[in-house]
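Tokens as discussed.
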């Protein structure tokens, strides 16, 4: 191991920086293998620092130091400074006045396969600095509370790097000898170095503009490889939509005259909000009707919105330290969720977000890496860009909006921006602003920031016919998580509605209150608390946690009949869908038990009746209709079981799908036919909904092994002019017996071999295939010429899709899936530690499986731990998985 005991960083140890950087002038002489960097820092002692040191500690990694000069004329030697693997310490710097330090170093972008710092992607040079990548470019105070004015000059070959970009405004440019040129950029806004970016390459540009609410005209530019320019239009429209939305909903206007987005094909995450120069994974920019699905279109708009919204929630107001990551990420995710909800369907977006939270974040919160949305310790911060910080963080912001109401929440956000513009602040500062603006005490609510684990909300109901009252007793508990045994009660907003047995709404009126309403937000603050509703002549059915008003698990015994009733009558779109999910889950769990006890499976007629009702209702929102027809995923079912039985879950769920397909085949055929039209290129809710419902129907029908349906799938595949229909049909062909499987996969590859993002889909589709030979296919695909361990999108679409999206085959009882993943993680560890660590996700949940699988999974984690070059990223996740920290 490189570092036998990597250091843990604690929130409680935070201290202010000893020095501040007033401004920096950076000069890059660009070259693939030897880029030289000259950094001229104007530094000043931080008056707020308590420390007595006279040394300046700069951070830097993998840098070749060439020169250090003080105040432009004093050449420093090794007597004046000391270098270590990750620091440059300058002794005895001036304390009373500002001083200038010029540092010259060189870096090798081509050797940088970790894709952090300055690296090469398809011949283009680009940077990724969040969280701690800037220190791989030059020595710096690489921490978010050091905010600096940046001036950046880029110099490079005119043919290789005709486009030279950095943050802010383009100030000057010129020509040099040897076919080189230069450009100087200046960012007028102070920013932490994690928001720095540069891009250089042969890039094409799509241009447009946006006029802000105050009448300023902003130039919008999307850069991509020339071949991809025809796939940038949707991203541009999304950007304009996001800019308008942030003005209308949050009163936030854009601040620079230029907004640039660059699409790069090698990227560790989704996208990055660098000031005025976002860098994006191509996956979240490029779309054409024939190459991208409806989901891709939606996600592109969501991610473009997300990065744009960061300009206020992240950049203008940034984080004091990385423990505060959810300050910008939780809030920004909440903002992008609402944006997408407004642009598409609120009901559908909410369900999709909750689905993801409950399948993936709940699993994280129940596993060895569980942490609060504001973690209090980490080894490698890259490991904390998690579903908890992002998605649960967004739920916490959403609860604030629920508690304060939309207006109160807006008052709070206005005050937050007013108070903290230009500052690096904490999650507490955010809650403080919400408190002050609304004149309330959120003391108990703050526990959501410090407590990990998914709370369990237990509901008991007692109806008193004589008094015409209903008493709901709500109780909360939270399971222990690593490092946190005891939990204090949280403030949980529980939105409740009551429904009469005829399906009409019963009004909610709590005892002692005069007002009544369609639903009510109960504020649970105690471990257990009772709420009594009055004026109920008959016992109503309770609709609990409407809109999923808190990120908790509800325990409330319900009969299948009651769930079927709610599926028919709940006026809350989330809970209506949720009732159907619970109904299906209960039925599938019953079948799982049948399988485990060698009983034959039989489908409960209640499921048939419920499905029939849904099928025969007229749904204005076809996407919502599609969700009602979708059974809970295998991973969500697994999440709810005490011990995951992968095979039984798969078999039971498939049995239900097939039974429904058989029973309803004529309705499903009709639905398919009425909704199957060529509306390629149309992305309105109607066209998207028709594609979605049609593809759901084809999915069911494909289980039937029916020659005519196989023809339908083949025709849809062959004639499709949009990717939603083409990949939808291909998935049905590949996941069910079909004579043309090989031929279709081959022709798809032929057709799309020059579209990397489509080829990613081709890999992922096969990696998640349910057919028996899936593992052999994965092994073969690893050898495919188009596979590439240095491209994170490819890795995710093959190794990630197999390990996280194909439970049936990944968890094969003989352990071959685990061993395969172990091998790949060890290989990736040396190439790209961040991606390697993400791939470990599939092994961290070993405790959820049977004893034999536990042994096999742990064996791989132990083998990974013996890698002698193990990175901090992989070390932290593997070691914590084997040994959850207990204090
Ligand atoms: N801040 C980015 C976002 O919008 C996250 C991100 C992008 C990131 N690239 C990264 C985080 C690389 C860590 C490392 O959510
Ligand atoms: Zn973000």
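Sequence:
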């Amino acid at each position: 191991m490189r570092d036998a005991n990597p250091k843990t960083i604690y929130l409680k140890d935070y201290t202010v920086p000893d020095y501040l950087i007033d401004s920096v002038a950076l000069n890059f002489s660009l070259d693939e293998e030897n880029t030289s960097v000259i950094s001229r820092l104007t530094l000043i002692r931080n008056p707020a620092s308590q420390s007595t040191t006279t040394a300046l500690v700069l951070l830097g990694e993998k840098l070749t130091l060439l020169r250090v000069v003080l105040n432009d004329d004093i050449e420093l030697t090794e007597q004046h400074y000391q270098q270590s693997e990750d620091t440059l310490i300058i002794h005895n710097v001036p304390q009373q006045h500002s001083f200038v330090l010029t540092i010259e170093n060189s870096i090798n972008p081509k050797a940088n396969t970790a894709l952090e710092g300055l690296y090469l992607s398809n011949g283009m040079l680009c940077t990724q600095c969040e969280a701690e990548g800037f220190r791989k470019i030059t020595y710096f105070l690489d921490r978010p509370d050091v905010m600096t004015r940046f001036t950046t000059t880029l110099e490079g070959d005119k043919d290789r790097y005709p486009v030279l970009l950095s943050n802010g405004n383009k100030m000057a440019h010129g020509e040099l000898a040897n076919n080189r040129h230069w450009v100087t950029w200046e960012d007028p806004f102070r920013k932490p170095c994690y928001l720095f970016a540069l891009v250089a390459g042969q890039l094409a540009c799509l241009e447009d503009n946006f006029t802000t609410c105050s009448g300023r005209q902003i130039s919008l530019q999307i850069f991509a490889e020339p071949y991809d320019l025809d796939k940038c239009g949707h991203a541009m429209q999304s950007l304009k939509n996001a800019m308008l939305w942030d003005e209308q909903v949050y009163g936030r206007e854009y601040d620079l005259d230029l907004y640039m987005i660059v699409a790069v094909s090698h990227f560790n995450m989704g996208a990055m909000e660098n000031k005025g120069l976002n860098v994006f994974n191509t996956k979240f920019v490029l779309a054409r009707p024939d190459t991208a699905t409806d989901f891709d279109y939606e996600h592109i708009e969501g991610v473009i919105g997300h990065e744009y919204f960061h300009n206020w929630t992240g950049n203008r107001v940034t984080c004091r330290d990385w423990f505060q990551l959810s300050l910008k990420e939780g809030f920004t995710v909440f903002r992008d969720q609402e944006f997408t909800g407004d642009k598409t369907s609120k009901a559908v977006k909410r369900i999709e977000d909750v689905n993801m939270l409950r399948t993936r974040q709940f699993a994280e919160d129940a596993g060895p890496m569980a942490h609060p949305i504001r973690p209090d310790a980490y080894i490698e911060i890259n490991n904390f860009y998690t579903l908890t910080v992002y998605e649960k963080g967004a739920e916490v912001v959403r609860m604030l909006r629920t508690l304060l109401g939309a207006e109160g929440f807006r008052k709070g956000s206005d005050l937050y921006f007013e108070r903290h513009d230009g500052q690096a602040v904490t999650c507490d500062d955010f809650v403080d602003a919400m408190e002050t603006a609304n004149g309330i005490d959120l003391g108990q609510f703050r526990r959501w920031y410090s407590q990990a684990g998914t709370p369990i909300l237990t509901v008991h109901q007692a109806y008193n016919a004589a008094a015409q009252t209903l008493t709901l007793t709500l109780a909360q508990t939270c399971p222990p998580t690593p490092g946190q045994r005891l939990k204090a009660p949280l403030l949980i907003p529980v939105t409740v509605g009551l429904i009469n047995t005829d399906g009409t709404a019963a009004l909610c009126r709590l005892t002692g209150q005069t007002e009544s309403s369609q639903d009510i937000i109960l504020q649970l603050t105690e471990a257990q608390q009772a709420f009594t509703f009055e004026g109920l002549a008959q016992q109503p059915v309770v609709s609990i946690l409407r809109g999923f008003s808190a990120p908790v698990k509800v325990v409330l015994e319900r009969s299948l009949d009651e769930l079927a009733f709610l599926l028919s009558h709940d006026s809350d779109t989330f809970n209506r869908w949720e009732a159907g999910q619970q109904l299906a889950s209960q039925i599938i769990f019953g079948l799982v038990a049948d399988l485990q006890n060698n009983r034959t499976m039989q489908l409960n007629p209640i499921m048939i009746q419920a499905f029939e009702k849904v099928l025969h209702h007229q749904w204005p929102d076809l996407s919502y209709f599609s969700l009602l027809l979708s059974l809970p995923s295998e991973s969500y079912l697994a999440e709810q079981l005490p011990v995951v039985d992968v095979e039984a879950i798969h078999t039971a769920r498939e049995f239900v799908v097939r039974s429904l397909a058989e029973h309803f085949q004529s309705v499903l055929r009709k639905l398919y036919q009425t909704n199957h039209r060529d509306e390629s290129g149309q992305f309105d809710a109607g066209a998207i909904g028709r594609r979605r419902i049609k593809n759901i129907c084809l999915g069911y029908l494909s289980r039937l092994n029916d020659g005519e349906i196989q023809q339908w799938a083949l025709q849809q595949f062959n004639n499709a002019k949009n990717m939603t229909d083409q990949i939808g049909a291909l998935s049905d062909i590949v996941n069910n017996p079909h004579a043309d499987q090989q031929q279709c996969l081959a022709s798809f590859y032929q057709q799309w071999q020059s579209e990397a993002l489509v080829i990613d889909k081709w890999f992922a589709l096969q990696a998640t295939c349910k057919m028996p030979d899936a593992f052999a296919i994965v092994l073969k695909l690893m050898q495919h010429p188009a596979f590439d361990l240095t491209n994170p999108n490819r890795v995710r679409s093959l190794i990630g899709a197999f390990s996280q999206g194909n439970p049936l085959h990944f968890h094969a009882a003989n352990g071959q899936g685990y061993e395969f993943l172990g091998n790949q993680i060890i290989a990736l560890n040396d190439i790209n530690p961040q991606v390697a660590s993400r791939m470990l996700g599939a092994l961290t949940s070993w405790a959820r499986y049977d004893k034999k699988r536990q042994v096999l999974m742990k064996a791989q984690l132990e083998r990974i731990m013996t890698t002698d070059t193990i990175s901090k990223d992989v070390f932290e996740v593997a070691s914590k998985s084997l040994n959850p920290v207990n204090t």
